[in-house]
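Input record (Table S2, row 166):
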Amino acid sequence: MSEPKALNKNVRVFTTHSAEETIQVGRELAKFLDPPEVLLLRGDLGAGKTTLVKGIAAALGAAEPEEVTSPTFTLIHEYAGRSVEHANLGETILLYHLDLYRIENQRQLDTLGMEELMTPQSVLLIEWGEKFPSVTARCDGEIVIETLHGDERRITLVLQSPKAAS
Ligand code: ADP
Ligand code: MG
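Output record (magnesium ion complex):
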């Protein structure tokens, strides 16, 4: 990493070899999601994005893995749960999983009402958000899933300017 900016970034890398392991990584990543948070969720079709969200939603007590499905057609899925790190405080987290693949332009994006989802309790995980500069400008980082050999996946969480640990 030659970019000086990289020094300010909070990067975590995981390698998994099955969907179950990726769900487990999702559970782990949930600990780092500190609302309000807006993250790109990047990866090819079948990389494991929905699988990862299953683990995140499960860790927040927001949904059973089988209840988490792709928002390809519905565009937005909402899962209400509780902070993993601050569970004793009963802090609510609203997990939103969005897929902007079918959104063609800024005008369509505006009608989606994303702004209204960005509450202080919200974590937004956005697929295809990199299509829109207005979205990337609002992002606090990204989760990238890369397919390596076979079932092997590399999952990278990058958080810009990490918030102070509490
Ligand atoms: P995406 O949402 O990125 O399109 P999905 O999570 O819907 O991907 O699907 C991932 C598919 O890949 C599932 O069928 C899953 O069983 C399979 N798979 C195989 N190995 C892994 C792995 N290491 N992590 C996640 N999914 C895996
Ligand atoms: Mg998916």
